[in-house]
Every structure is written in C-alpha cells, then in structure tokens.
Amino acid sequence: xIKPLLTPLASLPPWPLGRKLAFRFALLFFGLNIFPFxxxxxxxxxxxxxxxxxxxxxxxxxxxxxxxxFGLPEITVRPNGSGDTTWNWLQQFAIVGLATLGxxxxxxxxxxxxxxxxxxxxxxVWLRYYLAFTMFTYxxxxxxxxxxxxxxxYRLYERLGEMSPMGLLWTFMAYSPGYQFFSGACEILxxxxxxxRRTQTLxxxxxxxxxxxxxxxxxxxxVPVKIYSFxxxxxxxxxxxxxxxxxxxxxxxxxxxxxxxxRPFVPSRGFAWAALGLKLAFVLGLVGPMLYQGWQRNQYVDxxxxxxxxxxxxxxxxxxxxxxxxxxxxxxxxxxxxxxxxDLVYVVNQHGxxxxxxxxxxxxxxxxxxxxxxxxxxxxxxxxxxxxxSASLSLVGRLGPDSLRVHLRKMPDRAxxxxxxxFHWVNEFxxxx
Length: 433
Description:
By secondary structure, the chain is α+β, with helices and mostly antiparallel strands. The protein has two domains: about 10-300, no CATH class; about 310-410, Lipocalin (Beta Barrel). The protein contains twelve helices and eight strands. It has helices at about 15-35, 45-70, 85-110, 115-145, 155, 165-175, 175-195, 200-220, 225-240, 245-255, 270-300, 415-420, and strands at about 310-320, 335-340, 340-350, 355-360, 365-370, 380-385, 390-400, 400-410. It has an eight-stranded antiparallel barrel with strand order 1-2-3-4-5-6-7-8. Strand 7 (about 390-400) and strand 8 (about 400-410) form a beta hairpin. Helix 7 (about 175-195) runs antiparallel to helix 8 (about 200-220) and helix 8 packs antiparallel against helix 9. The protein is globular, with a radius of gyration of 27 Å.
C-alpha cells in the first residue's frame, strides 16, 4: 500500500486572493444548497428539516425576494414534481445573493488568513459525499428501471405529436432497459469514485460528464429539474477544479505533473479507523437500502400484469350530476398500465382530454383509488371495479364531486413495431420508419 505524502499544514503554500474569494463563495453557495445533509437523508428526519428549514427560513426569504426584487405577489406553488418553479428560481437567487454578500463580509473579517487548507479539505469531503449520495440515488433507479419505467400501452397508442417533450424523453428511455442500466451505472461509477480522496478528481470529472448530459436533456426536453442538475454538475466541476493546474499540465500543456501530498488532516490512527467506520456506515446505511429497495421494487416491474391491464374503449360512460352535451370530460379511451413499479390509468377523449392518474388497487376487496399526480394535495378518488371477463372492466365510484359509472371493453390486440423490432447485430439496410 502506498503511504500518503505527509506535509505539515504550516508549510503548505498560501492561497492567492482570487482562490480565497472563490472558495468562500463556493462553500456558501453549495453549503446553502445541500444543508442539512446528511441529516436530512436519515429516515424520519427529512420531514422535520423540511418543516423547520424550508417553512421557517427559506419560504419567508423567498417570498421577500419575490416582493422586493421582482414585485411578485405571494408565491403559492411550492416545489412538487417540478424543481424549476418560481419558488425554486427565487431560492437560487437568494442563495447567490447570500453567498456573494457572505463571502465579501467573510473576506473583510478574515482578511489576514493566508489559506483555508483545513476547511477546504472538510468542505470537499462534505460535498463529494453529498454528490456520491445523489449519484447513487439517481443511478439505482436506472439500473433497476424505475425512474423511466417501461413502455406502456398508452404510449404505443398515443400519437407522437400529442406527446410533451418530457413524455418523448421518458418514452425514449423506457424503450430500452439496457440503456437505462448503462446510464445508471455511469452515475453509480461517479458516486463510487467520489467516496475516496484519491479518486476525487476523477469522480468530479465523471460527475461533470454524466450530469452535463442530464442537464442538456433537461433543458432541451423541458424536464423541470434544470436547476438541480446544473448545480450538481457545478459540484463535480468544483471538485475537479481543485486539481485544475495539474489537469491543465496533463491534458493541455503537455507538461509533467507532480503528486499531491495526501496528508491526514487529523493525524491519528484512531481517527483513520473512525473515518473508515463512517465510510462503511455511509455505504451500508444509505446506499445499502437503495440497492435493496431497488431490487425489491423491481420484482413488481417483472411481475405478470394479468387481464386487468390493457387498452380499453369506453362502451358506456355515465356521470352524475348530468353534464352538458357534449360531455367534454367523458372517457372514451382508458389505458390501465404499469410503468416501472407504479400502476397508472390514462384517460383520453376526442375533445382533448389527456389525464393521468396514479392507481392503487386492492385485489381482495375489488376496490381501487385514483390520484391526480399533478394535484397539490393528496386527495384520492375511490372506485369499485368488476371484471366479468378478461376483455371487459367496469368502474363505479367518485371523481371529485361527480359519481361515475364506466363500462370498458378491451381494444383488439395490435402488433406495434417499436416493442417488437428488437436488437440486431447485422442490418443489411436501415429500418428508419
């Protein structure tokens, strides 16, 4: 085993002014974004920190920034399935402002300090473990095809022009579990490299590459995770920049590089064992459950669907109280699908209705509940379901204030090219239809 090069802290060179200013800003910018990690990653703690930090610190500050700088009234839409809400953008505006003011005040109060070697080390540890945790989180839901799921019958019947850009991207990814696995494996690789100081720079570079691609997909396919993916990419860039001069010499200037002294910042054998124990606790306590939950949820992905699922056409749709004629909310086509580990119901009609519901089904009680994933509350709509034969399905229940009775008949089977084409090593001619 190669021993680290030991260099006394006092003999390390001072930092130039620009580096000190950049470090102070980076610590405050990333720190405000990721605090209180890792406490908020622990079970039962995430809700507590949301209530205390988001509700009592961030929300008043965000509302104040909206009023003072942009003349906006109270912002009621909070982060939901979208991480690019007005609230999110104002939060980043506030973070950049706080980091700028804080770094300037810090520079004035601590203007005699020559460097931040010790603090810089621990900040890099905190940041790379946060990035590693995030890379594992995104990676495992792709290795097990849970984020994008699998192709649904609704997508197969839907016309391309009726898809949203995000829906098109999700369909592109859902088509190929193999490509999902590859994408997730790249993210997991970045996370593994970030766990160790010796591979910190390489982990940062891999993170930049992986998250740069994700950010561009989010931008050009209108996926509302642009803010988050961008500063994850910035986090990888910051870690790689700590070796910026050596990377320049190696990759551009064609000059030799010198090894970096990997000194222990708490030179104690007991601390080294404690650090190893914490690393194992991180991997086993946070990453282990991700792996297990991904494997467990994947069992449902691969489970047989049964006759309940499929594309249906509504033979009868009754709504009470009686609607206007024509009923623009009448269900005409209903797709009962499984996408990844979730059951979904898509409802379509010729008047432009395109509605998706999350589905929770109780097979024993013959009941189900539909929930609108775009709603700000968690209200679910109860139904009883009956299936006299494998080709029909009846639903009786309530959707908001309305009582519904729907009788559905399965559409005839269709042979779609997309799910049946498969992979070919040899293609005598391109099949581009």
